[in-house]
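Our preliminary data section would be incomplete without showing what the modeling component actually yields. Below, a chain of 455 amino acids is followed by its predicted structure, encoded as C-alpha cells that our downstream tools consume directly.
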Amino acid sequence: MSRRIRMAGTLLAASALTMGALTGVASAQGDSGRAAAAKVDNPYSGAKVYVNPDWSAKAAAEPGGSKISNQPTGIWLDRIAAINGVNGAMGLRAHLDEALKQSGGSPTVVQLVVYDLPGRDCSALASNGELGPTEIDKYKTQFIDPIAAILSESKYANSSLRIVNTIEVDSLPNLVTNTGGKATATPECDTMKANGNYVKGVGYALNKLGAIGNVYNYIDAGHHGWIGWDDNFNPTAQVIKQAATAEGSTVDKVAGIITNTANFSALKENNFTINDSVNGTTVRQSKWVDWNRYVDELSYAQAFRQELVNVGFPSNIGALIDTSRNGWGGSARPTGPGAKTSVDTYVDGGRYDRRIHIGNWCNQSGAGLGERPKAAPASGIDAYVWMKPPGESDGASSEIPNDEGKGFDRMCDPTYTGNARNGYNMSGALANAPLSGHWFSAQFQELLKNAYPAL
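Predicted structure:
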C-alpha cells in the first residue's frame, strides 16, 4: 500500500457540489464488466459522500434544517430487518442504488454503521440489540453474510462507490473498561468478554466485508473521555488487534479507526492543554480531566492511531472523527481560559465541552453541531464525519415498550443522579426523548442553535 497522503480539503455533500472527481475509476453504473478500482489510502479524498434521502427529508422539514439537510450522514444497520428496510426506511440496496445515482460516475463514499453484535452495548440499556449474548452464529449468517452478499454484487462492487463501514460502536472498548471487577463493570460485559463473541463478531465482520475490493472498515475506538487514561489506552489497542486478527481477519482489512461515534467530546480544546498547570497543580489533576492524557478528540484520535501502529497495524491506517454533535457553540461557549483561582476554575471556565461529566452520553443538553464533514482535515485523520445523524435520539428518557430490543437507560433520564461511570453526576439529558434512532426534533433544534462553527 502506498504512503497515505492527507491534504486539507473541504468535503461537500453528494450533490452537484463535489470535491472534484478522481480519474481512472470505473464510472458506468452496474457495469459488471469493469473491475472495481484499487483501494485508495483515504477513501474520502477526492470523493463525494452520499446524502441519505431519509435523513435529509427529516432535517429539511425542521425549521432551519435546510442549512444542513444536504450533509452526508451514516446509515445505521442496527438490526437484521434494517438490511431490507424497516418502518418505511430505505434498505441497503435502495441506499446503494441511490448512491450510484448521486455519484454520476464519480468516486462516492457510502457510510454504513454495522451494529448488531450479540449482547450489544453491554454497559448501557438504551441501545441494546436483538441478539442474545450467545447468538454469534445468527449474527454471522443472518446479519453480516447478507450485508456482504449485497456489497459483493457486481453492480456495487464494480462501481465508483467506496463503502466505509463503522464496525460495532462501543463494543471492544467495553471489554476493557466495564469488566473484571472494576467499579464500572457490568455482568453483561463480563459475559461478553468471557464468551469472546464481541471479538469473534468484529473479526468476522472485518474479514467478510474487508474482502470486498471497494470496502473500507473503520473500527470504533471510543473517545478520549473513555479510553484516554493509561489503564485503558494500550489495552484497548490490544483488544482491537485481537479482534482484527480473529475469525480469519488480518490487520490489512482495517482501514482505520473512528472515534467519538455518536458522542459529544470536543474536537479541539483551545483554552487549556494537558501540559498546563495552575499554582503548581497540573491540569491532569482537575476534576474534569481526572488524570486523562488527552483533553480533546483530535489529539486522542491521532495518538490512538499511532498506538495501533505501535501494536502492529500498518503505518498508513487512518482515523475518522464523528463531529456531528461536538460543536458546543451558542451563548455558553467560553471565549478564553477560565480564572486561575484553581485548576478546576481554569479548566471548567475554559472548556468548550459543557457536559456535567465527560461520561454523559445521552441526548446532551447544550450540544451543537460540530465541524462539517471534511476530508483529510489534519495529520492522520481521513475525515471529519457525521456518522451519527443529527436529530436521531440516543435513547428514550422514560421507558417505552418496543419490538426493537431497546431498553430504558437512566442515563437518558434528565432526573437521574448518576452512577459510577459518570461520577454520580446528573445525566444532562434532554427530556421527552424517543427511542434510540428515532427522530427527536427538540434535539435537532438544540444542535442547530449551538452549532460551532455557527450555521
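The CA atoms of residues 318 and 444 lie 30 Å apart. Residues 136-152 form the longest helix (17 residues). Preliminary results of this kind motivate Aim 1 of the renewal.
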